[in-house]
Specification:
about 425 residues, alpha/beta, D-Maltodextrin-Binding Protein, domain 2, 2 domains, ten-stranded mixed β-sheet, two-stranded antiparallel sheet, 17 helices, globular
Amino acid sequence: MSRTKLPLVACGLAVSLLATACSSGFGQGPSQVTSGKQEIKVLIATSGSPETAAVKRAADAWAEKTGNSVTVDIAQNIDQQLGQAFAGNNPPDVFYTSGEQFPTYAQRGSLYAYGDKLKDSKAFSPLLTRAFTYDDKMFCAPKDQSTLGLAVNTDLWKKAGLTEADYPRTWDDLARVAKKLTKDGVTGLTVNADYNQLGAFFKQSGSWLTSPDQKKMTATDKANVRALAYVKELLTQGVLKFPKALDSGWGGEAFGKGKAAMTIEGNWLAGMMEKDFPGTSYKVVPLPEGPGGKGTMAFTNCWGIAAKSRHQAAAVDLVNHLTSDSSQLTFAKVVGVMPSKQTLLDKYRRQNPESAAWADGASYAQLPVSAPSMRQVMAEFNTSLAGLADKDPAELLAGLQKNGASVLGGNRR
């Protein structure tokens, strides 16, 4: 699932990846099995039983067609389990890899670069293709994608005397309606204290935290300071609250409980609302534009294939099946993600008109920071964001700039 930004990384990951660096370097690959019945092992991180069942059905269909067999295992902590498997030279053949974790695996030689063997590689979104490109090689097929939109509780909206004409198109609009919706124990807006979501404001302000090639930090750009200062102002006014202040674990929960009239969330929100809060009426609209224009965030996974796999040709064939048009549309319907193929987005919009704002955002989205070894830096930044209401935005970004520069200075991408 594309909601890979939410789980925390296990502390054991760093140790396992260090071991991976020693055991999975670039070198001659294992001898390949090219004939007879092959047994393919797949490891996924699942959002729940619907996603698990959908992947298993697709894998079983391929197995029946090819005569091979597929075992789909469910990871409890996929980053940790993959790190340990790479270090032990016994990785699964095919597995989920997040956009944020991919560069680390690619840098350390753990992945098989099979992008040139995909049947329709040009159909995928260029943004997502770049997310899984390292040293000018496309390593793996984007599995799906998610973006952020503004979810509005339509009952609370009408109760506040607002109409569709009031859906916010600018930052000023957002501040105005958030203020009007903040009453009777309800907060106008909630959003996670996480750069993966607050990052949309940096993009809307006209900047981002790194250069496009992620070789240089740009966190202290004036546009980024302006964006964080805007968020702080909403917090200070009390029209924006982080979920913790609303006794909730994340923005979608606070929104579903009716503690916030608006939230900034991805298309995973739809499945949660249907399951946990089916009586809540809401609508998803595009995020408002900032001084720098439109901006949202994009999240993605890919189907990784292990460099140590002895079944690479069969694994590629399986991935081609898992990313076929029919498979992607099925996953979109069952799991709630969007297709990673830009050629399928129009059809997705027609089939899911309520998700049009999320689909439209794919054309102007920003991917999270994914340079090798930056995960801890960004985790520390998230920790500091939780106290934004009482901190200087410029100082927070200066700290990120310093910490990020110390890492990027030693990276090659």
